[in-house]
Write a structure and sequence with these properties.
Layout: E1 2-7, E2 10-13, E3 18-26, E4 30-39, E5 46-51, E6 57-59, E7 67-72, E8 77-82, E9 91-101, E10 104-109, E11 113-118
Parallel strand pairs: 2-11
Antiparallel strand pairs: 1-3, 3-8, 4-5, 4-9, 5-6, 7-8, 9-10, 9-11
Length: about 120
């Protein structure tokens, strides 16, 4: 079993910063690509940022220059540093990870963490 636990969400004023964490635990060999998504009520899920196991990154245009994704392979944790937050960044953020387990690659989701940016 593999668990992903997100943390770091909260309430912040516009222009502020938060750092989200996505920590993996359980039985696995390695973590491949990890992706942060967000989804507001009634809207489609949006890819925010992704990082591969070799550190290559990809960002949504809406967060480029403001958000930074990084990973600590020793701690099995991926971070999303969010700076200059805007009210439109308010929603629930989820991480998704491709994890190498016995038998192949399996994908897991975290439970989500709420980010609220006040104007």
């Amino acid at each position: 079993q593999v668990q992903l636990v997100e943390s770091g969400g909260g309430l912040v004023q516009a222009g502020g910063s938060l750092r989200l964490s996505c920590a993996a635990s359980g039985s696995f060999f390695s973590i491949n690509t990890v992706t942060w998504y967000r989804q507001a009520p009634g809207k489609p899920r949006e890819l925010v940022a992704a990082i591969t196991n070799d550190g290559s990154t990809n960002y949504a245009d809406s967060v480029k220059g403001r958000f930074t994704i990084s990973r600590d392979n020793v701690k099995n944790t991926v971070y999303l540093q969010m700076n200059n937050l805007k009210p439109e960044d308010t929603t629930v953020y989820y991480c998704n990870a491709g994890v190498r387990v016995r038998g192949g690659i399996a994908y897991y989701w975290g439970q989500g963490t709420q980010v609220t940016v006040s104007s």
